[in-house]
Specification:
By secondary structure, the protein is mostly beta strands. Helix content is 0%, strand content 59%. The protein is built from no helices and eight strands. The chain is elongated. The two termini are 19 Å apart.
């Protein structure tokens, strides 16, 4: 049968270093899935960061370090067979 799904991920403002000297902005991303399963096989398409939100996922070494942006809109397809 057909499966539809959605998921949400919210990360609030957080401190960027151990000294709590600066904050990194919050973000909210949405994901979705469309899948079909029959007998012993399943096909699915997953959509991550559906609205292509730009966000900072993590920070290395505080202010002087590097910001690591999160992934933009991503589509992942999969197909599986059970034996």
């Amino acid at each position: 049968g057909l499966t539809l799904g959605a998921g949400f991920n919210y990360v609030s403002d957080r401190f960027g270093d151990l000294a709590n000297s600066f904050e990194v902005d919050s973000y909210f991303i949405t994901s979705a899935v469309i899948a079909y399963e029959s007998d012993n096989w399943r096909a699915a398409v997953n959509f991550r960061n559906l609205f292509d939100v730009e966000y900072i996922e993590s920070v290395a070494n505080g202010r002087g370090g590097e910001n690591f942006p999160g992934e933009g809109f991503t589509v992942i397809g999969s197909f599986s067979i059970r034996f």
